[in-house]
Design a protein that fits this description.
By secondary structure, the protein is an all-alpha fold. It has helices spanning 2-6, 17-39, 51-80, 87-105, 112-136, 143-166, 170-203, 214-232, 240-259, 270-295, 298-328, 337-358, 363-390. It folds into 2 domains: 1-168; 177-393, no CATH class. Helix 7 packs across helix 11 and helix 8 packs antiparallel against helix 9 (240-259).
C-alpha cells in the first residue's frame, strides 16, 4: 500500500489488472475486427503470418497472456504478502506486451528472429517478475503457476518452430489451448463454486455447492489425461473410438461436477451466472472433441476448439475481468444492464461460431456475425469499464 500511495502517475498503472484488462480487451476487439475481413479477403494486415496463424497467435499469445498477467499481478500480492508491482515496473512490463502486438502486426517487413524475440519478451519478463515475487514471499505452493506459464511459453516457441518448418502449428495450438483450459478448470473450479456459495448464502439458499473433494480431483486428473491425448492425437495412432469415448466421458464428468455447483440458482445475478455459462463450454468442448474423434467430423473438431476458445476462454476472462474490475475499484459486486449485455454478446458469439462450424455453407454469414458479437463484447468492456480503470479508486 505504501508503494501504491507513493505512485503519483496515471491510475491505469497503479495496479496490474488495470492496463492489462483494459488493453487486453481492446486488443481482443481489434483482433477480430481486423481478422474477419482479412480472412474473407477484404483487407490485408501487414503481418508475416497467414490470416489463420495471426488469428491464433494473437488470441493465444497476445490476448490470453495479457489477462493472465492482469489476474496474477493482482492476485500474487495476496498470496505472498508483498507489495504489488506498480508504477514504472508495471509500465515497462505493459510496454513489452504492447510492443509485441505492434511488432507482430507489422512484421511483414521485419526479420523473423526480431519478431519472435519481441513477442517472447513479455511472457519471459512476466515469468521473471512472478518467480521473484513468489520466491521472495516463500509462497512455494504457487510456484506451479510459474510452471504452467513456462510450459505455455514453450508452446509459443513451438508455434514458431512449426510455422517455420511446416507452415502450420497444430501441436502448439492444441497444447496452448489445453493448458489454458486446465488453468480454467483449476482456478475456475475453485472460484466458481466459491463465489456461488457466497452469493447463495446471502440469498438464504439452504443447499450450497460442496467443497472441493475427491470427485473434483478425479475429474481434474481425467481432464488432464484427456487433453494430453487430444494434443498428441494427430501424431500417434490412438484408436479413434478409445479417444472419443475418453473425451466424451470427461465431458460428462465435468457437466456433473458443474451441476453440483447449483448453477441454475444463480440466474438472478448475472455477475455470478456468467461464471457458470463460461465454464459450461469446457464440458461441451470435451463432448464435441470426443464426437469428432469417433466420426472424423471436422465441424465437430472446430466446434470443440471454439467452445474452448470463444466460450471458455472468452467468456471466463470477461467474467473475471468484470468482477475484479468492479471489486478493486470500489463498485458493487453486481452486474448492471450494460455488463449483462457484454455477457450476452460473448454467448451469442459462441452460439453463432458453433453454428458456423456445423454449417460450413453459412460460414460467410455466420462468421462475420459471430465476430461482430465478439467485438461488441470486448469493445463494450472497454467502454463500460475503461473509465473505472483510468480513475483512482474512490
Amino acid at each position: 500500500m505504501a508503494r501504491l500511495r507513493a505512485w503519483q502517475g496515471p491510475a491505469i498503472f497503479s495496479y496490474g489488472f488495470r492496463p492489462f484488462f483494459l488493453f487486453g480487451a481492446l486488443d481482443a476487439a481489434l483482433l477480430i475486427a481486423l481478422w474477419v475481413p482479412w480472412y474473407l479477403g477484404f483487407i490485408q494486415v501487414p503481418s508475416m503470418f497467414t490470416p489463420v496463424s495471426w488469428h491464433v497467435h494473437e488470441l493465444l499469445y497476445g490476448y490470453v497472456p495479457a489477462i493472465i498477467a492482469g489476474f496474477l499481478l493482482t492476485a500474487v500480492p495476496n498470496w505472498t504478502g508483498r507489495l504489488p508491482v506498480v508504477g514504472w515496473p508495471l509500465t515497462g512490463l505493459f510496454g513489452l506486451w504492447f510492443g509485441g502486438r505492434v511488432v507482430v502486426a507489422f512484421s511483414a517487413s521485419l526479420a523473423p528472429a526480431l519478431v519472435y524475440l519481441a513477442a517472447l519478451a513479455f511472457p519471459l519478463a512476466l515469468i521473471g517478475f512472478l518467480t521473484r515475487e513468489i520466491l521472495a514471499g516463500r509462497n512455494w505452493r504457487n510456484l506451479k503457476v510459474v510452471l504452467v506459464l513456462t510450459l505455455f511459453t514453450a508452446t509459443q516457441i513451438l508455434f514458431y518452430y512449426e510455422n517455420i518448418r511446416y507452415g502450420t502449428s497444430v501441436y502448439a495450438e492444441r497444447a496452448a489451448i489445453a493448458l489454458v483450459i486446465m488453468l480454467i478448470q483449476i482456478i475456475g473450479g475453485r472460484v466458481v463454486p466459491s463465489f456461488t456459495r457466497n452469493w447463495l448464502k446471502k440469498q438464504g439458499f439452504p443447499v450450497l455447492p460442496p467443497a472441493f473433494g475427491q470427485f473434483d480431483r478425479f475429474v481434474m486428473v481425467m481432464s488432464a489425461a484427456g487433453l494430453g491425448a487430444w494434443v498428441v492425437f494427430p501424431a500417434f495412432a490412438i484408436e479413434e473410438p478409445v479417444l472419443g469415448f475418453l473425451l466424451m466421458a470427461i465431458g460428462a464428468f465435468n457437466l456433473f461436477r458443474q451441476w453440483r455447483w447449483r448453477p441454475l440458482q444463480t440466474f438472478a445475478e448475472p455477475l455470478v451466472f456468467i461464471l457458470h455459462l463460461a465454464f459450461l463450454p469446457v464440458s461441451l468442448g470435451f463432448v464435441f472433441a470426443g464426437y469428432a474423434a469417433f466420426t472424423g467430423d471436422g465441424g465437430a473438431e472446430s466446434a470443440a476448439i471454439h467452445c474452448w476458445t470463444v466460450g471458455a476462454i472468452g467468456g471466463m476472462t470477461l467474467a473475471i475481468m468484470t468482477r475484479a474490475s468492479r471489486g478493486h475499484t470500489g463498485h458493487p459486486l453486481t452486474a448492471p444492464p450494460a455488463t449483462a449485455a457484454i455477457y450476452l454478446a460473448i454467448m451469442i458469439a459462441l452460439v453463432l461460431r458453433l453454428a458456423a462450424a456445423f454449417n460450413p455453407g453459412w460460414t460467410f454469414t455466420l462468421m462475420p456475425l459471430a465476430g461482430l458479437a465478439w467485438v461488441f463484447a470486448f469493445a463494450g468492456f472497454c467502454v463500460v469499464y475503461g473509465p473505472m480503470l483510468f480513475k483512482p479508486r474512490s
